[in-house]
């Protein structure tokens, strides 16, 4: 039996609904961890689909809303944003103990880190970078109301609401004084630009959430953080993940896929996005600073959970290294804000 899958019940559901697979079905975990779990489902006729469900033992359904992710992917099916085909959503907890949805299998690689990015042909990396900018522009130019997503979230004051949320998290989980984080929080509050508009925001737009092949994105994945808000928050986050080989400093961020080399520069990515959207990027450093600060606040929460033993023992968790990264991200935010 495959952990996370009630094989008899799920197989029956797949045979009678959604893709209507032919039993028996073989289940293989593709990606697991603290995020949603992804399984390949192969049937006796040689067909394969992909099943997504929340993490095992997770009780906060709002953070891993299968219905929301299914809805967003389905809504974008006819847009210029490449997404997998969706087959169906199961909300009946008696089937598998948690909601799940099924989507089509897309061929390609997911370049989670530099090692996997090195498997991409060098000649395709520059065109992939251009396409990353083009797809993000297409997402942000998609009218939420026209695809049925106009009620996905509040459209206004996106960064202000995010800053309020994560500053509360920071206050609740901080374990040491980190002057750079406090300075960055103050500057973020003081220098917040006006929101340029409300778009569909992916929330985790990076190469590690894309299936790629032939120098193009074949499918954009992991829509669990998707909402409506400021499009430049997506771009700022993407730019922070877009590290070049000469920016390697010796910490965890050095595993970013683009450090493998051959990708377009950050400035070229920005230029292509600005050309397509017409958006003013003069305040983009603010959004980059906010992204650095937010990631540090999230990592502080992880640090605190490990520190108090809430996540179990782990020989691989570097407490000192995590503290260094949090302070460094705070300092990067301050630098970008000109503080």
Structural class: alpha+beta
Q: Which percent band covers the strand fraction?
A: 5-15%
Radius of gyration: 21 Å
Q: Distance N terminus to C terminus? A: 56 Å
Count up the domains.
2
Number of helices: 11
Mean pLDDT: 92
Q: Can you identify the CATH superfamily of the largest domain?
A: Aminoglycoside phosphotransferase (APH), C-terminal lobe
Uncertain regions spanning at least 5 consecutive residues: 58-62
Element-by-element helix/strand order: HEEEHEHEHHHHEEEEHHHH
CATH topological fold name of the largest domain:
Aminoglycoside 3'-phosphotransferase, Chain: A, domain 2
Helix content: 40-55%
Q: For the record, what CATH class of the largest domain applies?
A: Alpha Beta
Strand order of the largest sheet: 1-2-3-5-4
Quick recap:
By secondary structure, the chain is an alpha+beta fold. Helix content is 42%, strand content 13%.
Describe this structure in words.
The radius of gyration is 21 Å and the shape is globular. With 339 residues, the chain is α+β, with helices and mostly antiparallel strands. It is built from eleven helices and nine strands. It folds into two domains: 7-104, Phosphorylase Kinase, domain 1 (2-Layer Sandwich); 114-336, Aminoglycoside phosphotransferase (APH), C-terminal lobe (Aminoglycoside 3'-phosphotransferase, Chain: A, domain 2). The strands form three sheets. A five-stranded antiparallel sheet has the order 1-2-3-5-4. A two-stranded antiparallel sheet has the order 6-9. It has a two-stranded antiparallel sheet with strand order 7-8.
């Amino acid at each position: 039996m495959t952990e996370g899958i009630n094989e008899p019940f799920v197989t029956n559901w797949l045979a009678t609904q959604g893709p209507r697979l032919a039993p028996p079905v073989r289940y293989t975990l593709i990606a697991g961890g603290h995020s949603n779990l992804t399984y390949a489902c192969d049937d006796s006729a040689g067909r394969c689909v992909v099943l997504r469900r929340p993490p095992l033992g997770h009780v906060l359904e709002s953070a891993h809303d299968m219905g929301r992710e299914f809805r967003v992917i389905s809504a974008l099916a006819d847009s210029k944003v490449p997404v997998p085909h969706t087959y169906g959503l199961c909300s009946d907890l008696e089937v598998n103990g948690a909601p799940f949805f099924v989507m089509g299998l897309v061929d390609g690689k997911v370049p989670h880190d530099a090692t996997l990015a090195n498997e991409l042909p060098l000649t395709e990396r520059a065109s992939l970078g251009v396409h990353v900018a083009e797809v993000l522009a297409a997402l942000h130019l998609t009218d939420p109301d026209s695809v049925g997503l106009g009620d996905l979230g509040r459209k206004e004051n996106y960064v202000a609401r995010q800053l309020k949320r994560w500053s509360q998290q920071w206050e609740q989980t901080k374990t040491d004084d980190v002057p750079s984080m406090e300075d960055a929080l103050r500057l973020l509050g003081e220098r917040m630009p006006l929101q340029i508009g409300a778009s569909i925001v992916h929330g985790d737009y990076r190469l590690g959430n894309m299936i790629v092949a032939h120098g193009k994105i074949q499918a954009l994945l992991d829509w669990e953080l998707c909402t409506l808000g400021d499009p430049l928050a997506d771009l700022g986050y993407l730019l922070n993940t877009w590290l070049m080989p000469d920016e390697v400093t010796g910490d965890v961020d050095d595993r970013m896929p683009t450090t493998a080399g051959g990708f377009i520069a950050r400035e070229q990515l920005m230029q292509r996005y600005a050309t397509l959207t017409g958006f003013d990027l003069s305040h983009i450093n603010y959004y980059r600073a906010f992204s650095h600060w937010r990631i540090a606040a999230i990592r502080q929460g992880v640090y605190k959970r490990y520190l108090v033993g809430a996540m179990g023992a782990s020989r691989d968790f570097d407490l000192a290294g995590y503290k260094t990264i949090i302070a460094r991200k705070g300092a990067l935010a301050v630098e970008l804000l000109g503080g």
